[in-house]
Amino acid sequence: QFNITLGEKINYFEFCKRVYFILANHKTDTSKITTIIDKNPNYTLHVDKLAAILPDANFLCAIRDYRSYVLSNIQSKGYNAKHLPIQYHALVWRFYNKLVLDIQKKYGKRIEILKYEDFVTKKEKSFKDICNFFGIEFYLECLNFQETIMPKKGDEQRHERIETKRAALSKPINTGRLAAWKSVFTTFQLKVIEFWCGKTGEKWGYEKTTKATLVENAYIFI
After folding, report:
1. What's this model's pTM, rounded to 2 decimal places?
2. Could you tell me if 75 and 82 are in contact, meaning their C-beta atoms sit under 8 angstroms apart?
3. pLDDT averaged over consecutive 10-residue blocks of the chain (222 residues)?
4. 113 touches 63 (CB < 8 A)
């Protein structure tokens, strides 16, 4: 279905752009598109390559309190995330966020940091900042996206995780999950998570809530 002639000389970005436009063609007039936004957390691993291919690209990096991140994963419906130990998720968070710190230092104004906590508590300002960063027009009604979502009929083969995400999209942005971790993790579990993430978390303003002993730190490390 791609309207691309075999042998035509196009670069990688031009090819991707045409694919995106084909996907959008039934929804909008593609001649009016000025910006392409693609959400994929794995792009964080490839910013150098993407920056070289797309010299005009900017990058939005989303971060979240590490305790909320770990909780979200162990409560996840689907895949194997919920069966993995909490230290695994803590280490994933630390790896990703240390990478974001390096990216921010290297690329400066081409990188914008979006904190989940800011987005749900100051959603209008956060969304305006995102629009300004990408140079696109701000529409307040976008924050009421859930009002335009049309529910689809269920599919017996559809994954439970997809159903959960679709149900979440039908609700407005809320602060309900901000501090859910406080009532779920034990003190020692928090010590484990904060042992691995605490120093990196402090650079984003996430303060530790526990103080482990030397013996506990040694046990956690081993």
Report:
1. 0.82
2. yes
3. 64 83 80 87 92 91 96 80 88 96 95 93 93 92 78 58 68 78 95 97 96 95 92
4. yes
